[in-house]
Amino acid sequence: MAADCCYHLAHAALWLAFHGIWRLRVEGREHVPRQGGAILAPNHISNVDPPAVGAAAPRPVYFMAKEELYQMPLLGRILPRLHAFPVRRGTVDRAALRRAEELLRAGELVVIFPEGRESETGQLQAFQPGTALLALRAGVPVVPVWIEGTDGVMPYGTMLPRWSRRPVRVRFGPPLRLDDLAAAADRRQALADGTARIRAAVAALAEGE
Length: 209
What we know:
Elements: H1 2-20, E1 25-27, E2 38-42, H2 49-56, E3 61-66, H3 73-78, E4 84-87, H4 94-105, E5 109-111, H5 130-138, E6 142-148, H6 150-153, E7 169-172, H7 187-206
Parallel strand pairs: 1-7, 2-5, 2-6, 3-4, 3-5
Antiparallel strand pairs: 6-7
Helix pairs in contact: 1-2, 4-5, 5-7
């Protein structure tokens, strides 16, 4: 109960900040399922991308947060109350995957950044296969998400937010299902195909499609 209260208070504060200061614009909110598990898969250009997606989503979300953040004394204690759980980047973190799958099977929204890390240039990077793997294992859709403007609020390599002339935009695309790949004999190829589909759906949103 205390964790939920903390999350909702933080969500309200972020909603006010993103709408009042950074002029958040949200498109395609109707594409996010109103119930049941689903993965939100955004591009990643800034450290404020997770709260931007959280402020834009129509229902509570859970996040994978890089393990390094939990080493910060205050932030490390707050993150679990904000629906975040740790993930070790650059490796197959089975504990993080299990936690994400549990949440998805319980009907929650989980935000996963398929690139695995911020893009220094803002260009879409290669996607890791973990998002497709979780979608197949949990049997849930993937909602592609495109984020713009957060790199003005907190540019790559900086730690403090700032005012920006550009508004922040979060665009949700139609849910993508990978069910046809679940029974594929070649699991590796199925993950590669699913990952390619997710990346193509995210890239299409950059053009407003």
